[in-house]
Write a structure and sequence with these properties.
FAD/NAD-bd_sf, 8-stranded mixed beta sheet, FAD-dep_OxRdtase, alpha+beta, FAD/NAD(P)-binding domain, 12 helices, D-Amino Acid Oxidase, Chain A, domain 2
């Protein structure tokens, strides 16, 4: 379906009632590279009824529809405000980590103890297999690169911390990571001039994220799901066991609803998700294709994906198409999203890490909202057992891989099944709220300034 509205870069989930209606994609390299979107079912056109409605046409909504059909025989209806993969799913770095949320494994141990940490780790390995099976499915066609990942120490102190994290992974969790010295990283992986060493994890798959979303959409529709783009939920009421979802094209009645709107969740959508996530903006930059001389000067020996250890971290990878993709945190509000200083911050990082690329043309720049939970851990839950409402959210910047597993788990819950390890923190409680909700962005500004200082001295 052709877009009826131009892309609006200043959308802010804390201030705008809706992310739009049939809005065009953001100007990312992923959209340029992914080809035409797969066929969908167009906007809702008249009142309709469904057993299950999934709100959000990104990774989670699309994969949940696929699993509902494949494993439970339920043909769901997906309602997407704009386009397939328009939100977080088409704007991330394509890094499929073995990570459930933002907390490190050592933080799991400190927060819940060794036993729970081991169970979470085992759960993450099981969940990653779900993602891997989808990412490497030829019918999904998302250009997977199964190379593991590097956590790059940006300082000597950060490298000491990686040594400790690696020992915990190896000895406590049985997950064999390796510490690499600076020379090994520079000579075998990447010539990042800020690198003091790195931790190599054996598990990690990079993908073309928008193509992954497109693949999920094609699979879901082949199995009988309906995907209605240009159909934002403008109003939601519940009467008894029936939910009434008003869209511009008509009323959709549903017996069960799964919420999969991530960082684009309006506080007005439903009380069960209101202010349960903190939307955080990240940006991403893609350079022009590099010359062979530039590739050699930058030491791009691998297309493994990387993240550095800063609090305000950079995530980056050398793409098979010979472009550098790099991203980091961005504006705090939608109103400031297009401020040139945010692009400049990333361009300066490119120059520090790869001096040969100082001043290089960056023809693609986009930004988008992540769903950061207040305790940095995701949830897949039915938050109120009296209501047939479910959500999978709070991925905290690690949704590429986790969303596949979360979708399968949410599909099980919607179908009335039981999930394994239901007492783990990510399944046993709703997303926490925040006691200082109106002041969160003031706190975010102060925290960013504090993190900038820490990243300089540590």
């Amino acid at each position: 379906m052709p877009a009826t509205q131009p892309y609006y870069p200043h959308y802010d989930p804390l201030h705008d009632a809706s992310p739009g209606t049939a809005m065009d994609y953001p100007p990312s390299y992923w959209r340029f590279h992914a080809g035409e979107p797969p066929q969908d079912d167009g906007p809702v056109n008249g009142d309709m009824e469904a057993d299950v409605v999934l709100i959000g046409g990104g990774f989670t909504g699309l994969a949940t529809a696929m699993f509902l059909a494949r494993e439970h025989g339920i043909k769901a209806v997906v309602l997407e405000a704009n386009q397939i993969g328009w939100g977080c799913s088409g704007r991330n770095g394509g890094q499929g980590h073995l990570a459930w949320g933002r907390l490190s494994r050592s933080q799991w141990v400190r927060k819940w103890g060794v036993d729970v940490a081991r169970r979470l780790h085992a759960n993450s390995l099981e969940g990653f297999e779900v993602f891997q099976s989808l990412a490497e499915d030829p019918d999904i066609d998302c250009e997977p690169q199964n190379l593991g990942n590097l956590l790059i120490a940006h300082s000597k102190q950060a490298l000491e911390g990686l040594h400790q994290e690696s020992r915990l992974c190896n000895k406590v969790l049985g997950y064999q990571t390796r510490i690499l010295d600076r020379d090994t990283v520079l000579n075998q992986y990447v010539g990042d001039q800020e690198c003091h060493g790195a931790m190599l994890e054996p598990v990690g798959i990079a993908v073309q994220p928008l193509k992954l979303a497109y693949g999920y959409a094609r699979a879901a529709r082949r199995l009988g799901a309906k995907i209605h783009t240009g159909s934002p939920v403008q109003h939601w009421t519940t009467d008894g066991k029936m939910h009434y979802l008003q869209t511009p094209g008509g009323m959709v009645r549903a017996r069960s609803v799964g919420i999969a709107t991530a960082g684009y969740t309006s506080p007005n959508l439903n009380k069960l998700t209101a202010y349960r996530n903190m939307p955080i903006m990240a940006n991403s930059v893609w350079t022009r294709p590099l010359t062979d001389d530039e590739i050699e000067a930058c030491g791009f020996h691998s297309t493994i994906f990387m993240t550095d250890t800063r609090k305000l971290r950079y995530y980056y990878r050398f793409l098979p198409e010979k472009r550098l993709q790099i991203g980091s945190r961005s504006a705090i509000s939608g109103a400031d999203a297009q401020n040139p200083k945010h692009l400049k911050i990333v361009q300066e990082a490119i120059a520090r890490k790869f001096p040969a690329l100082a001043g290089i043309d960056t023809p693609f720049f986009s930004h988008g909202w992540m769903d950061i939970s207040h305790d940095m851990m995701p949830r897949v839950v039915q938050p109120d057992p009296k209501q047939s409402v479910f959500y999978a959210q709070g991925y905290s910047g690690n949704g590429v891989s986790f969303s596949a597993y979360a979708s399968r788990q949410m599909a099980t819950l919607i179908a009335g099944g039981k999930i394994k390890e239901a007492d783990l923190p990510i399944f046993s409680s709703p997303l926490p709220s925040h006691p200082l909700r109106p002041l969160r962005r003031f706190g975010q500004r102060a925290l960013y300034k504090y993190f900038q200082v820490l990243d300089t001295v540590r």
